[in-house]
Amino acid sequence: AAAAEAAARETQGRADVRRGDFVLGDAVHVTEEAIGVLELIVEAALAAGEEASARHAHERASASARHAEEVASLESEIGRLQAEMDRDEAKLSLKHINSLHEGVSLAEERQAAAEAAMEVAERALEEE
Fold it and tell me: Which helix (H) or strand (E) holds 83?
């Protein structure tokens, strides 16, 4: 009876080991599948990150190009306004010079008239 009981325990033990091996095999299989799924998730996340990074780089490059165009446009406008200001200053200076010339001419004419009047006055005094 003891031998039969020992044999039954041994048989039960072997069955338990087989069941444990089966459960362990299932656990390993499930773990391997989970690792595969996680690898896919990681690959997808990396791809999404790379895509977002590329999109961000493209957006920055576009913004930088737009900024450069705006700066060039503003520099061009500043140059145009500076040239316009220079032309206006030149016109004003020319007008001022012409005005001074007119003033000098008028002063010369008045001086000549005053000298002529003095000569007339001197002749009149001499005749007296």
Answer: helix 2-127
Cα–Cα distance between 80 and 92 in angstroms, integer? 18
What is the model's pTM? 0.46
Q: What count of residues does the chain have?
A: 128
Coil/strand/helix, residue 100: helix
Query: In this structure, is the dihedral angle defined by the CA atoms of residues 46, 47, 48 and 52, taken in order, positive or negative?
Result: positive
For 60, phi and psi rounded to 5 degrees?
-65, -40
Spatial distance between the Cα atoms of 115 and 117, rounded to a whole number of angstroms: 5
What 3 state SS string does 30-69 have? HHHHHHHHHHHHHHHHHHHHHHHHHHHHHHHHHHHHHHHH
- Taking only the tens place, the pLDDT of each residue in 5-64 is 888 888 887 887 777 777 778 888 889 999 999 999 999 999 999 999 999 999 999 999
